[in-house]
Amino acid sequence: MQYPTIEDTVGKTPLVALQRIGVQDNAERRNVVLAKLEGNNPAGSVKDRPALSMIRRAEERGDIRPGDTLIEATSGNTGIALAMAAAIRGYRMVLVMPEDGSAERAQAMKAFGAELILTPKSGGMEYARDLAVGMQKQGKGRVLDQFANPDNPRIHYETTGPELWEQTEGRITHFVSAMGTTGTITGVSRFLKEKNPKILVIGAQPQEGSRIPGIRKWPEAYMPAIYDAKAIDELVLVSQDDAEDMCRRMAREEGIFAGISAAGACWVAQQIALREHDATIAFVVCDRGDRYLSTGVFPA
Q1: CB burial class (10 A; 0-12, 13-18, 19+) of residue 72?
Q2: Does Metal-binding count among this protein's keywords (predicted)?
Q3: What residues form the annotated binding site for pyridoxal 5'-phosphate?
């Protein structure tokens, strides 16, 4: 008998209906809002999918081999997922992260054996990305580059999109996702729109002045190369206060312990539901709330 490995547990995450948040309005409008629980992946986020995808496919192309050093700039979830994937497949992992990332994220990366380089908060992810590229130029390792690597959206086209289609039996009418590297929303959109071009894809972005971990509005010079504007029908801005309030509500009212960016996507999904009828709206719960405990978003 061949037993599954930890890699085999990535994906096939549950899709669950919200039972209390917005339920009365949704019942009147005959809408259903569904949450894709990506925190159920082994390293705790949707980024487990592209992390393994980028490493496996780089191996298949002969670009890397076990024992090599991999480098990646990250705000947290991709770093944790890559640290896990590197541990599984035998790589040295160096992660570059802005110093304002939560303590839980940094600790999780180190727990998987990754080396962590913290960069100034003032430089944001842009500085971290530049530093990672500079390290590669100096021969210190290979950058997988989640922002430009087609193996990122490809895995969502191959797995996340088909799962949503199957789990809703083709009834999905709207897909909502927080936008960071844009791999999830780009890959899922490509698949769903091939199945039904009428499906609307909505991206959640932060309002001006809001800092929501995992949701970004990139300067033009740093726009991820994998981003496909044609894949997205609408952008909805969410405030930090609304995202953090929804984060607490999801835990207390739904029993879904989610991160702040996931809550931002949930807030956007609820706004979409308020204007639609007979809609099946799915959003991505991209990670778990336990990696945000030190941020103060949850009451002590």
Answers
A1: buried
A2: no
A3: 77, 180-184, 261
